[in-house]
Amino acid sequence: MVGEPTPGRTNTAADEAQQPILAAPAEPTEAPAKAVPPIAAPSTAAEPSASASPSPSSAAPAPVVQVSTVTERATIRHGERTVKDSSLTEGKRVVRTKGANGIRTLTYEVTTTDGVQTGKKLVKSTVTKQPVTQVVAIGTKKAQSSRCDPNYTPCVPIASDVDCAGGSGNGPAYVSGVVKVIGIDIYDLDRDNDGYGCD
User: Fold this and answer.
1) CATH fold of 65-141, please?
2) What is the CA radius of gyration of the chain?
3) Over the stretch 128-165, which tens digit does the pLDDT of each residue have?
């Protein structure tokens, strides 16, 4: 029949367009977006909690505290005592008893932390050696002025004139026995100039 379409063919524009669309593959950008979900970023909320409670191995070690006993010695200074002595010339000092220092033993409790001393407490104090007081004698005897002439020995009195006892001299002072002239023979006792007077 004239004007009827050929069986099995379609001449419409819609039928011709459908064949290439059905045969065409899907757009390459759409398939990955739908098939592969986005990878979630790792959560950072768990990290602080993990570091907040450190393992026992990473914790700071406990300080090492040690207590020990230490003994020290201290010197006890001796004192001094003075006594008067009338047999000594006034102002003269003589040590009668020599002084000696004593010793005191001190016991301490010492605390150290990590090798550094952090405490020291005295727990005992004992005198292990008593000090000896020094005794000094001070003379009180009044010094007597010399009454002997320094030019002679033994003593020849100091006077306006001295003669040998038993001689012809008239004094006023006299000397008995032989005397040695050690200076100037001011009393003319050594008449023969042998160094001795009244011989």
Assistant:
1) Resuscitation-promoting factor rpfb fold (2.20.230)
2) 65
3) 999 999 999 999 987 666 688 889 998 998 888 999 98
